[in-house]
Amino acid sequence: MNKLASGAVTCAGSRERGAVLIVSLVLLLVMTILGMSSMRSTTMQERMAGNLRDSNLAFQAAEAGLRAGEAFLRQATLPPFAGSDGLLLRQDGAGQADFWNAFNWADNGRAAPKPAGVAEAPQFVIEELPPMAAEGGSLKFGPLSEVAVFRITARGVGGTTDAVSILQTTYRR
Questions:
Q1: Which domain holds residue 17?
Q2: What backbone torsions phi and psi does residue 169 show, to the nearest 5 degrees?
Q3: Which residues touch 61 (CB under 8 Å, ≥6 apart)?
Q4: How far apart are the first and last CA of the chain?
Q5: CA–CA separation, 165 and 51 (whole Å)
Q6: Element (H, E) at 126
Q7: In total, how many domains does the chain have?
Q8: Which of 6, 8, 110, 117 is the most buried (most CB within 10 A)?
Q9: What angle do CA 86, 108, 159 make, to 5 degrees?
Q10: Predicted local distance difference test score (pLDDT) of residue 77
Q11: pTM for the whole thing?
Q12: φ and ψ at 109, to 5 degrees?
């Protein structure tokens, strides 16, 4: 080693080849790839959580439609089921999903109150099914009369129109 007049020490014959630069660039590349994959994973998880929320909103809206249909059926008197305004006679194939996916809800459904956060108000239709014989009775009043049976089908939409849920329930009156 030579000592310079300014006090700096120099190494004669040292050869720097830049190995630290190459190693640090490779490590930086690996860290960039890891960061990009974790960002992609986080974005996918956010999409899945958003879709789950949207689906849950659609389910809750369809439930609200069912409750509105049940409230309608609790009236003292019911209007005639003439096949319009959401009051239908028994529909063939109405228990199948394909029937309700192709059903014209805009023209035939009844609107329920719109819950917060959904894109559209839930809709429902009520079908009048054949009455069923009532079970039981009493000695004083005799056998019970027939019981009216209705099928309520409700369609709910989530936060976007892509999430749709269709639910059915049977109501005896």
A1: 2-172
A2: -145, 155
A3: 115, 118, 121, 122, 156, 157, 158, 165
A4: 105
A5: 13
A6: strand 123-132
A7: 1
A8: 110
A9: 100
A10: 93
A11: 0.75
A12: -90, 160
